[in-house]
Input
Amino acid sequence: MNPVRTPQTTGTEPTPATPPRRDAEQTRAAILRAARHLLARYAQADITLKAVAERAGVSPPLILKYFGNKDALFARVMSFEQDADTLLDAPLDDLGRHMVRHLLTGQTERGADPVLRIVFAPFQGDRGDIMRANFRTQVSDRLAGRLTGADPGLRAELAVATLLGLGVMYGIARGTHLREATIDDIVDLYAPTVQALLTP
Output
């Protein structure tokens, strides 16, 4: 009978690979992306921290560490302030092109543009009213504040509506011809429509 031999280590075996560590900012961003993704598909009341954590690749306690609680997390998700920072980050004369390109690259590189979350406000009950109020003040009204000439509020809302229409057709309805076109081609064709509302 052969004795059972215990495996011996020689010191040359490879150590198990450890996953790369994310820094705090990357972790926060991953959690927010996960929460936004779920909020676009479910009512907030039906979303658990566990579901957000699983999608973000983190543990539920880590979400609590960064955001405090579920309500605080979703308060951040329902804010459009940071999204507006990047959406409106261009000189007024070139803002139409920037906004269209930003929306399309958000769809292609990140799978969704955060501004499009407003489309799902009707599914959020009373929370939807918070999203609408945030969207009006943080996106539409902020854009209107940059416009000169007559009816800046109306023109800003029409420009945002034009942009959202493109986002819905590109990212939600997934129009065949839109998805086959290059971003540059879409920007060239569509941006002048948005820009005409910004600088008529």
About this structure: The longest helix spans residues 152-172. Confidence is low (pLDDT under 50) at residues 1-20.
